[in-house]
Amino acid sequence: MLGPVLLAASRSDAVRRLVSAAPGTKQVVARFIAGETLDQVIPIVKDAAAEGLEVTLDVVGEDITTVEQSYAARDAYLELIERLKELGLGTKAEMSVKLSMFGQALEGGHELALANVRPVVEAAAAIGTTVTLDAEDHTTLDSMFAIHEELRRDFPQTGCVIQAYLFRTEDDARRLAAAGSRVRIVKGAYKEPASVAYQDKAEIDKAFVRIVKILMAGEGYPMIGSHDPRLIAISQELARQAGRKLDEYEFQMLYGIRSEEHVRLAAEGHRMRVYTAYGTDWYGYFMRRLAEKPANLRFFARSILTKG
Questions:
Q1: Distance of CA 214 to the CA centre of its chain
Q2: How open is the CA angle 158-173-100, to the nearest 5 degrees?
Q3: What stretches of the chain adopt beta strand conformation (E)?
Q4: pLDDT by residue (tens digit) across 248-306?
Q5: Is position 184 annotated as part of the catalytic site?
Q6: Which residue out of 118, 152, 184, 289 is catalytically annotated?
Q7: SS3 state of residue 97
Q8: pTM to 2 decimals?
Q9: What is the rounded distance in angstroms from the CA atom of residue 180 to the CA atom of residue 178?
Q10: 281 is catalytic
Q11: Model confidence over 119-174: pLDDT tens digits?
């Protein structure tokens, strides 16, 4: 079971140094990370819009250790929003944020993260877009949901993410599937203990379907985060059974994974959003992508074996 090993490695500074120095790393990272700078990612947003796709932009770098880094993360998102405003791309791109990047794990982190994310949500609303709060490991979720509830008082379009592998998520989905809510459902990509999460892929898939059914039957706006053709087809059928129109839910997939499927779903009239990460602190995000799919790890291993 390489997945748990890779997830553990995503928190290791020693493995970070080893992976960063490997000769094939840059080639593989480019498959999942749209670029290191805002100038590199903006053309990708434009190209996606031209293909009928939307994006959600993630400035990677959740493993911060100082308050000053949390302010830098806030400012990076504010710079992104200002650039989208200048280019008239606000309605084609939203933001995804990890509250750990905004200081959630630091002393007084709940209040710090809320104070940092609020101006980002406010600036996003001003250009006609919104922010989705990403889910992280289970110990952070009560804080994330509390911040989400607080933000929605002034910015009801603020979204959040729930993870199918956690036992708690069906109850969270019922609570969140209310009018005006925006909820992204994903399988989950953190190493979680058996006391709080399903460990078997089949059980996770079953939970995913149950949760999609709850969201589709609710009054909110479901966002289906999956690359699995079977789960996508089931989600389409559940949407049909719930009487939802094509613009009353959306699919989301990661940049660099099943790109032809992005275009196919958009061509069929579905709202299709590409989760697009960029930035220099890519390591944790990259390792979770390797953990999610063995083929990604094989691709990385082949690249490591090539010199230069």
A1: 20
A2: 50
A3: 54-59, 93-97, 131-133, 159-163, 182-186, 221-225, 250-254, 271-278
A4: 999 999 998 899 999 999 999 999 999 999 987 767 666 666 666 555 555 555 544 44
A5: yes
A6: 184
A7: strand
A8: 0.87
A9: 6
A10: no
A11: 999 999 999 999 999 999 999 999 999 999 999 999 999 999 999 999 999 999 99
